[in-house]
Design a protein that fits this description.
alpha/beta, globular, HAD family phosphatase, HAD_sf, HAD-like_sf, PGP-like_dom2
């Protein structure tokens, strides 16, 4: 696949969030959490409760839920249980968003360094990438388990940039959740935001996004994202580059 006329002369390092951005894993995470909590006497955990934690790491989510729901079990025990349930579901089926797969292929063909930086466990990240066939293109992986602080702190993105050998200000992050977009901003990185949860595009966490697809994955296209990367590469990193994508 040839690069478009607006593609960057020097390939921009691109860091992908995984869950809700590259793949639609939230249904699996919800079901894993629902089954886990049912085993600890919480039978009515609903999607609305789960949606509060989209973009937050699994450990942080379980720390909050165990306190709110009065679950008397170590967080490490809960974490191991949810990871086990999630891996069973993820290995059975995880859907890649088609336009995201196209973007990964386009970036790979044009020589862009790429990484995945996620709040999921490393085992979960690797299982999903292997199961979807993305592992051959996305070989640099950082889990929130490997850094001191999860999103909305910037640690996972900064570590991804370090492993790519890139300056944070040269990197662009793709994110679906406001905490992740905020983490990108705190890392000094530009962000392409594709909100997973409908109605969250106006969340203040997305305010610093360089490109916002207000309609989420229904509106996102690889061509539009790649063209924006070409334009953004021609601007100084400190220059505002906020745009809202218009449906084609």
């Amino acid at each position: 696949m040839s690069a478009s006329p607006t593609s960057p002369v020097t390939p921009t390092p691109v860091i992908f969030d995984l869950d809700g951005t590259l793949v639609d894993s939230e249904p699996n995470y919800y079901e894993a959490g629902r089954r886990l909590l049912a085993g600890y006497g919480v039978p009515d955990f609903g999607w609305e409760q789960h949606a509060r934690f989209i973009g937050i790491g699994t450990r942080e989510t379980l720390e909050i839920l165990s306190a709110e729901l009065g679950i008397d079990a170590p967080v490490d025990e809960l974490l191991a249980g949810k990871n086990r349930l999630y891996l069973e579901l993820a290995r059975a089926h995880t859907e890649v968003f088609p336009e995201m797969r196209r973007l990964v292929r386009l970036l790979s063909a044009a020589g862009h360094p790429m990484a995945v930086a996620s709040g999921s466990s490393r085992a979960a990240i690797e299982a999903v990438l292997a199961g979807t066939g993305l592992d051959g293109l996305l070989t640099t992986v950082v889990s929130a388990e490997e850094v001191a602080r999860g999103k909305p702190e910037p640690d996972v993105f900064l570590e991804a940039a370090r492993r790519l050998g890139a300056a944070p200000t040269d990197c662009v992050v793709l994110e679906d959740a406001a905490p992740g977009a905020l983490a990108a901003a705190r890392a000094g990185m530009r962000c392409i935001a594709v909100p997973y949860v409908r109605g969250t595009a106006d969340d203040p966490g997305f305010a610093g996004a360089g490109l916002l697809f207000r309609g989420g994955q229904r509106e996102f296209t690889a061509r539009a994202a790649y063209a924006w990367l070409g334009r953004a590469a021609q601007r100084p990193a400190e220059e505002p580059a906020g745009e809202t994508a218009r449906p084609s």
